[in-house]
Amino acid sequence: MITSLSSLENDLKELKELIELTEEENINEEDYQDEINKLENMIEEIEDEALYFDKYDDLNAVLTINAGAGGVDAHDWAEMLLRMYTRHLSSNNIDHQIEEMSQGEEAGIKSASIRINGFRAYANLESERGVHRLVRISPFDSNKRRHTSFAGVDVIPLIENNDEINIQDDEIRIDVYRSSGAGGQHVNTTDSAVRITHIATGIVVACQAERSQLQNKTRALELLKTKLLLKKREDELKKLNEIRGDQHEAGWGRQIRSYVLQPYQQVKDARNSIEVGNVQNVLDGDISIFIKEYLKWRRQGIND
Q: Which of 120, 124, 214, 277 reaches 20 to 30 Å from 45, CA-CA?
């Protein structure tokens, strides 16, 4: 950032000298239009860079989807969100892997977790944390009535090599089960999937991405350590807020975005009022506008 600002300052100085020369010799303005365009691009890059400031922004991330209220429609909605995120990641060539998935009884999924590996994966997906609301004519209702369903999305930074949290064997319960999925060569045929429950907090993590039970256990423990560390820091922040008084709540659990398919078509973000009319494009993974505007909204919140 400092290097970019210094370079911008030098280029501005050179452009000023060029403009002064232009005024003296009556040179056409188009002669320095390239320099102006270059400066505009540099300013835009610096502004974009300023959107990333949190200590966890550069880290890998784990995104978890859980079906909420709405029965089978909610399960279907959770699967639609899973498709939206995997398509977004694939279209942007971002490395990702489904860590765990639990199928719904009739359709869709109850839950799923995606591990995203990439520079600033956490910052660029933090925008998705919260409750996502879908309004549509239910394909599961024979009377073709409009239904509202919900799904919760959580996004956490993956803090690897985390030595702050030590987990003892008697603090957790480990369950082994067979991986669930739609079938195919990548679905395990042995009971290698691992679910770990932290007894004191009730935090549950699971992994079925690897064929090895040991590897799944290692990855699940890594995720559990991250969640425990984040909980510890969240608890510390709550104590601090009790001393400071009420603060703006930015935690998980609020409705952040509505996807309306009936009676009109619109996706609207509740935090910054961004609206998109092409719902299908969004559901096909085109969520970049929501990510960018969230980062701006987050930055503005720090400045307020």
A: 277
